[in-house]
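quick one, two chains, predict together pls
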Amino acid sequence: MKWQRVNNTFLLIPALLFFIFIPGLGIVLALLESVRSGGTITFGHYVDLFEEERFMTSFLFSLTVTSISTILSLCIGLGIVKAFSPLLKENKHKLIVWIPMLVPHFVWAYLVYSLFNQSGFYSNVFGMAGWIDDRSQFPTLVQERKGIGIILTYVWKEVPFVTLMLLPVYTTLSKSYKEIASLLGAGPYKAFWVAEWPFILPVLVETGAILFAFIFTAYEVPQLLGVTSPQMLAILAYDWFYSGTWSDRPLAFASLVLVGLGIGFVMWLLIYFTNKKRMHITKGIRN
Amino acid sequence: MKKRLAIIGVISLLLVSACGPSNATDSRELPYEDWETITSEAEGTKVNLFMWGGDDGINRYVDDVVAPMLKEKNNIELNRVPLDTPEILQKLQTEKRAGKDKGTIDIVWINGENFKNAKENDLLAGPFTDKLPNFTKYYDTGSQAFQYDFGTETEGYEAPWGKVQFVFFYNSEKVKNPPSSFNELKAFMKEHPGKFTYPNPADFTGNAFLRHLLYAKSDSDLAQSDFDEGTAEKMGDEVWKELNDMKPFLWREGETYPATLTDLDKLYSQEEVWMTMGYNEARAEHLIKDGVFPESTKSFVLNDVGSIGNTHFLAIPFNSPNKEGALVAINELLSPEAQFEKVKPDYWGESSPISYEKLNEEWRNKFMSVGRGGSVLEPSILEETYRGELDTEYVEWLKENWIREVAESQ
């Protein structure tokens, strides 16, 4: 018994070392860079950060784009799973939904760009069909201030991921809860909230958290589809990192460390609470 | 078990801390032998040339002209690696901090703020230009243009590779009378809204466009004066005002700007805009030949504002694994043969920093007789409007302030 336990610890070592050496070391160095100024340790860069208007604009823009993309992806993904879950059990149908997952984000963004920009595919189609006289009449969907192109890319790309996460829940979801709910007089709306929602909520929260963290700090898609200002956070950090004299570098590190810590903390909170809830549900089922 | 974990923790921490920078050995020295020894040592080696890869003509010049030339003459294999210059410097900086004395980069194409950065952070091997036979023989070694790079003293840390001047390109089918002064350019924008824009000043060319406006708003020769925050701000105010006045007439009403010159070129080739620009008076030639730019592309300069020109260079990083090879390759890139091919419009088409007076009769005639193509302005026009490059601190200053004053102001 004891040997088994010790053995398990040893099995963990490769993973642990991997974490310490690559991402761990990176994080520590980033932290150090963000508080180093000359030879002393200071939190001045963080103070500077909040005084930078660019950072605040960027932060709010990232937050808006990320929230909208995440929520839309979750809603559409849920809708698709709910509507097609019997169909989606078959592999060939699954494949159709998951095709966007096979394409890298950057390629997908480029696809969105070439389809929707003002001299892109749809603009040409519209022009040939005679719906618009000039390319400039085509609505600007990419490289505009509201981030529509970025949101479009992410929603398109992440909906399959949401369905992937939700499908197993729906396939194992027992029908009887819903039947009982409707027997007790619940309409379809009420039945959803009572008999389905509690089961899918933890998965939704988890998926949402992953998407949020992923989109919030994304670089390639906003680089291709974004505008000069406002910028998403990763782009701002990149700009600072590569600014000519390298004097803005601490700002780049500080902003990323801050975002990393923020996301880490929120993730921890979410997982803590949903785990509690999940335990509750699983226990409830067993009893 | 806790004890074990603690031990593991301590060991890993020790390992991590052992990875810090070490400056035990110093192998960054350039070879001190005579040129013949250097050439013989360089024979049969491979040289990695890291350079910006955003221009197809330039890339083909290196791959199809220079690489075979080096292979034949010196038996050196030249390997071009396309990477943005700031990223090359980042790589060097990382290698330096990690104490890596044997890097992968032998030559880097560099100038301006990147050179300043590299020199100040000790990322370059040291002075080497006086070692190069072709440089001492064919170049005006005392020229101001080689002594200073955007206000930074070169001190032989880099060898001049080319010389370019900033011009605008336009589609002569759409624009009958190209503007010849800044006011005419503004009038053009108002007449044809949405048909002009400039790249984000974080881009080299976009920044050069802004530097011209600084010139326009200044009454002294900025190339000769150091950066001064006060004067910059005074000129800046007028520049921001001009740019904000232009904004409603720009492509997409200035809501966004092309992130790079490549993006602006794309807009131009799709005829979304009617003008593009570039820090090379002849860069349109091969783009027209390749069918990227319309046949009717011509160029112009603004007579009152002038046209900034500069020299760009080749340097050797501190940890180049093959410094002998690098020296021989750079020497070859500076040779009349390689420079002549570079001036021809087929690949690159930029001016050569070589001194025509120092060439022999035959080479001088060859250089003089190159037809640079229909989109390139007369040398006399370029010469008349030539302005020296500004202190590199202006580049950074414009980049940062433009975001606040122009991009973010609605």
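Chain B touches chain A through 35 residues (CB under 8 Å).
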